[in-house]
Design goal:
The chain is of the alpha+beta class and 318 residues long. Helices cover 38% and strands 21% of the residues. The protein is built from 11 helices and 10 strands. Its EC number is 2.1.1.45.
């Protein structure tokens, strides 16, 4: 059994057994614990969960979107990635530019009302098509504000300049690998009000020892069933990419979560996943000809030996 995957399954069990029932912003309701840590040995294999299929290409394209400093969903849509659609869609349907049917609380209503869900899917299709085809529309409604890519690559200073945190931390790893300041933060209090979704994964720190690069993420809030599997794989991929550029091996990914929660409408799905036996982890391949993380494209990344159980569907809380 994969020790890495068992770390995640232990989190699921712990929250089901010990969590507190809480209301939340989405009005879905959660079972939640505060403060939990998992450790993944990246030498054991790439921690893409096998107890359900997790789409690697979506994880990789989202991470490359962050790395490029992009904040507009058009890049994601071009790579058939729809995981940020709801937040941009919400911006559109709440604007004066929208004149279609009422989409208030579309996240909940689409789960409860089949006729509404059909209309929601129709409007979402109209929205994404316009994002891809209409430059002005994409610029106005596709941008999510100063979310991860902006904070990582273009942190705004009080003097009006910008800081490329990701580039700076990579250069520091190369020249001062034992620094205790290898930190990138996405939580900028001034920008939080303008973001479509304030950063859930707020800060990450690197650590070099024995020729290996490790990464610890502090995540203020984590959707255990849908979000956390993505976050585990995404930051493990980021660690691999930076280790690849800096000539290091990979060490551990340490995942520290503040509010770790299972949505009330995900409980059955979590129990299904817990009933499945983990399988061997896959292997990550990075094109050896690409040396800089900023030059990596989706085709430069692949996984081998991934044989997961089937996917388990669950609604997204917006």
């Amino acid at each position: 059994m994969s020790k890495s995957e068992q770390e995640y399954l232990n989190l699921c069990s712990h929250v089901l057994e010990n969590g507190h029932k809480k209301e939340d912003r989405t009005r879905t309701g959660t079972i939640s614990v505060f403060g939990y840590q998992m450790r993944f040995d990246l030498q054991e294999g790439f921690p893409l969960l096998t107890t359900k299929r997790v789409p690697f290409k979506l994880i990789a394209s989202e991470l490359l979107w962050f790395i490029k400093g992009d904040t507009n969903i058009r890049y994601l849509l071009k790579h058939n990635n729809h995981i940020w659609n709801e937040w941009a869609f919400k911006k559109w349907v709440e604007s004066d530019g929208y004149n279609g049917p009422d989409m208030t609380d579309f996240g909940l209503r689409s789960q409860e009302d089949e006729s509404f869900n059909r209309e929601y899917e129709k409007q979402m299709g109209i929205f994404t098509k316009r994002i891809l085809e209409d430059d002005a529309f994409a610029e106005k409604y596709g941008d999510l504000g100063n979310v991860y890519g902006s904070q990582w690559r273009n942190w705004k200073t009080s003097s009006g300049e910008t800081i490329d945190q990701l580039k700076d931390v990579i250069e520091t790893i190369k020249h001062h690998p034992y620094s205790r300041r290898l930190i990138v933060t996405a939580w900028n209090p001034e920008d939080v009000p303008s973001m479509a979704l304030p950063p859930c994964h707020t800060l990450f720190q690197f650590y070099v020892a024995d020729g290996k690069l490790s990464c610890q993420l502090y995540q203020r809030s984590g959707d255990i069933f849908l979000g956390i599997p993505f976050n585990i794989a995404s930051y493990s991929l980021l660690t691999h990419l930076i280790a690849h550029e800096t000539g290091l091996e990979v060490g551990e990914f340490v995942h520290t979560i503040g509010d770790a929660h299972i949505y009330s409408n995900h409980v059955d799905q979590v129990k299904t996943q817990l009933s499945r036996a983990p399988r061997p982890l896959p292997t990550l391949n990075i094109n050896p000809d690409v040396r800089s993380i900023f030059d990596v494209e989706l085709d430069d990344l692949s996984i081998e030996g991934y044989d997961p159980h089937p996917a388990i569907k669950a609604p997204v809380a917006v």
